[in-house]
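User: Sequence recovery, please. Input:
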């Protein structure tokens, strides 16, 4: 165990990561050495920032808590504190089941951890409110908390509460500070970007926010995660088309396409409206790359519903696609209204077919990029390759461009280069510096 060292372990999504980065900055301001997601956790204080979205994420969080409690018992680490979405949702149960944890905090009251340790909370410590844990050239920026949607399966509103937009001037100032610190790419994140402003300004202000952020001098790329299809603010598409530094990329979680499923999921959008919206998006933003997330096994999903979903994937040919099986979450509408009537093996069989269909599409879409040159940012250097991304790929979740060191001169991490794509496979592109 190392004295004066804090280990922060972050599980779950990039929104959690931003919370951890704020906490890390506070620990640094109080004189601690801080490690984030270290391979060897041995601090006198360990903080686990948990995810509580679905069963698999909850299990991962609980396993991490138990692992750290065991490390504490043998003296490898000191105190263990747990915060985040899982504790926000299941605080009492966790306290009863794992009392060895030194303190539990929710998603929004983690500042009390500093107080309980006898430490001060610093406003704007060390010249900024976050300590970036990503590579220095990109960062996530959270524009809101919570969600006002009422999807049947989703526990997020239970955990985070109603949608709360951050003031526009605060976001512009944060973007300027990030760029001044060396950030070249900002990933704009929220549970629902497309609700921005409706709570505090009484109108959707996302298009205006994008204009202001894209005006920040030195910001090369601005990327959007996550949109919602119902009441989509179509005015943002013109801004995306006109502003060169807004990536032609949109992450919009669609979940399903059959009308019976969309009604059962309480998505407030129809099959016809979804097809029309996606057609309109691609018309308004030529070259737009769409990422979506789909679900299999929601209560009541028939073979016909699933076949419609498969056909939807074939029709739209998404550039990026993720999928997960339905999880019967306590407190959600689906948990109260429906029986979890699809066996796990059928849920899994459907997701396997879905991803197999997408893999064939991804292979074809990647092959079409061979011979073309793309502006590419270099994320890291590995033994044989420089690893980069085009504007059509988000870090961590999307594919990468591998540039062999054998035929390419030294490239710098965090810099942009024109990379010619020389070959491809299902999951990655291969390239070289364009002549």
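Assistant: Recovered sequence (435 residues):
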């Amino acid at each position: 165990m190392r004295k004066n060292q804090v280990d922060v372990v972050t599980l779950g999504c990039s929104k959690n990561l931003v919370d951890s980065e704020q906490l890390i900055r506070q620990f640094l301001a109080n004189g601690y050495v801080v490690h984030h997601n270290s391979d060897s956790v041995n601090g006198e204080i360990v903080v686990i920032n948990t995810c509580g979205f679905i069963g698999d994420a909850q299990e991962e969080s609980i396993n991490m808590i138990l692992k750290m409690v065991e490390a504490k018992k043998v003296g490898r680490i000191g105190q263990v504190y747990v915060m985040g979405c899982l504790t926000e949702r299941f605080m009492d149960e966790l306290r009863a089941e794992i009392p060895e944890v030194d303190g539990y905090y929710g998603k929004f009251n983690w500042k009390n951890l500093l107080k309980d340790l006898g430490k001060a909370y610093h406003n704007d410590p060390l010249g900024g409110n976050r300590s970036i844990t990503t590579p220095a050239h990109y960062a996530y920026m959270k524009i809101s908390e919570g969600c006002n949607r009422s999807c049947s399966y989703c526990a997020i509103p239970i955990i985070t509460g109603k949608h709360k937009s951050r003031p526009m001037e605060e976001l512009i100032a944060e973007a300027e500070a990030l760029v001044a610190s060396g950030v070249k790419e900002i990933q704009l994140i929220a549970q629902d970007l497309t609700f921005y402003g409706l709570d505090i300004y009484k109108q959707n202000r996302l298009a205006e926010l994008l204009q202001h952020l894209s005006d920040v001098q030195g910001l090369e790329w601005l990327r959007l995660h996550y949109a919602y299809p119902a009441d989509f603010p179509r005015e943002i598409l013109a801004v995306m088309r006109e502003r060169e530094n807004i990536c032609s990329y949109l992450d919009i979680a669609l979940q399903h396409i059959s009308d019976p499923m969309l009604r059962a999921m309480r998505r407030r959008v129809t099959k016809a409206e979804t097809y029309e919206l996606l057609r309109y998006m691609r018309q308004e933003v030529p070259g737009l790359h769409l990422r979506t997330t789909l679900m299999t096994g929601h209560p009541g999903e028939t073979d016909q519903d699933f076949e419609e979903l498969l056909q939807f994937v074939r029709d739209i040919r998404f550039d990026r696609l993720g999928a997960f099986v339905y999880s019967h979450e306590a407190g959600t509408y689906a948990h109260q209204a429906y029986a979890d009537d699809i066996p796990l093996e059928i849920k899994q069989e459907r997701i396997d077919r879905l991803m197999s269909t997408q893999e064939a599409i991804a292979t074809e879409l990647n092959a079409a990029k061979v011979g073309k040159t793309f502006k590419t940012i270099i994320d890291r250097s590995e033994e044989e390759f420089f690893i980069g991304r085009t504007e059509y790929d988000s870090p961590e979740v999307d594919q990468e461009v591998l540039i062999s060191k054998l035929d390419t001169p030294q490239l710098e991490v965090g810099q942009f280069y024109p990379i010619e794509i020389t070959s491809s496979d299902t999951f990655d592109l291969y390239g070289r510096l364009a002549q």
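Residues 132-365 form a domain with the pyruvate-formate lyase- activating enzyme fold (CATH 3.80.30.20).
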